[in-house]
């Protein structure tokens, strides 16, 4: 299924380039909205292919995007989502595990680089990986904030078409400002170490997390 999803994704990425510029915004918002649905990645690509075909066929007839999709784009997407099978509990769990593993290995690499730079500038050099309470809290904040922003952008995709782009942008900016503020406060005030291991061992653990993530993806 993963191979079929990748092939479909590649095919759709090529075909969507044929969509006229004036139809791109509607198409993009529809796909963004569908991405937040409870469909598997494969079914999302199947739906995406159908939408691309509808738009391209309409373009050949000279129809506008409003005529092709009926005008109420969110309603069209909701009907499509309702008609498609939902993820099984196992698929939802695997998706959640994949998200956590992805976040852990990316944040792990960042933490490794940060610890390495700090150690290179310090005397004496110990080449130790130090994880503080603040680092742990920040990791959780980053993951939760990223997921929340993703779903907010997806669910409000069509609202930005109704002249509310500035409001949406200000909301995201405010949330980002609050998140950055929390990250700084946690980094400064929660400095108690909860883990201290050799930098090489930390690198091995991050690599292991990455490999496990690849296995889960497959």
Based on the model shown, name its key terms.
mainly alpha; 2 strands; 5% strand; single chain
In short:
This protein has 218 residues and is mainly α. 76% of the residues lie in helices and 5% in strands. The model has no long low-confidence stretch (mean pLDDT 87).
What does this 3D model show about the protein?
The protein has 218 residues and is mostly helical. Helices cover 76% and strands 5% of the residues. It has a two-stranded antiparallel sheet with strand order 1-2. The chain is elongated. The chain starts with a helix and ends with a helix.
* Rg value: 22 Å
Ranges with pLDDT <50 over ≥5 residues?
Answer: none
N-to-C terminal Cα separation, in Å?
A: 9 Å
- The strands making up the biggest β-sheet line up spatially as 1-2
Quaternary assembly: single chain
Total beta strands: 2
The secondary structure category is mainly alpha
Q: Per DSSP, what share of the residues sits in E-state strands of 2 or more residues?
A: 5-15%
Largest sheet: 2 strands, antiparallel
The best one-word shape is: elongated
Instruction: Write the element-wise H/E pattern from the N-terminal end onward.
Output: HHHHHHEHHEH
Helix residue percentage: over 70%
The pLDDT mean sits at 87
């Amino acid at each position: 299924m993963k191979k079929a999803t990748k092939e479909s994704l590649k095919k759709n990425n090529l075909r969507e380039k044929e969509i006229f510029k004036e139809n791109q915004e509607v198409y993009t918002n529809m796909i963004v909205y569908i991405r937040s649905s409870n469909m598997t990645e494969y079914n999302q690509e199947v739906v995406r292919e159908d939408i691309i075909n509808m738009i391209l066929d309409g373009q050949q007839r000279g129809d506008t995007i409003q005529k092709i999709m009926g005008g109420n784009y969110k309603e069209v997407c909701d009907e499509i989502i309702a008609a498609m099978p939902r993820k099984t509990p196992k698929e939802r769990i695997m998706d959640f595990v994949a998200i956590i593993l992805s976040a852990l290995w990316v944040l792990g690499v960042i933490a490794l680089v940060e610890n390495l730079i700090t150690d290179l500038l310090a005397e004496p050099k110990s080449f130790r990986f130090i994880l503080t309470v603040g680092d742990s809290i920040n990791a959780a904040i980053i993951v939760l904030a990223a997921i929340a922003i993703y779903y907010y952008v997806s669910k409000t995709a069509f609202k930005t078409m109704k002249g509310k782009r500035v409001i949406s942008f200000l909301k995201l900016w405010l949330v980002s400002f609050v998140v950055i503020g929390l990250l700084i406060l946690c980094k400064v005030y929660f400095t108690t170490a909860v883990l201290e291991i050799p930098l090489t061992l930390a690198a091995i653990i991050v690599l292991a997390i990455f490999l496990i993530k690849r296995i889960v993806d497959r």
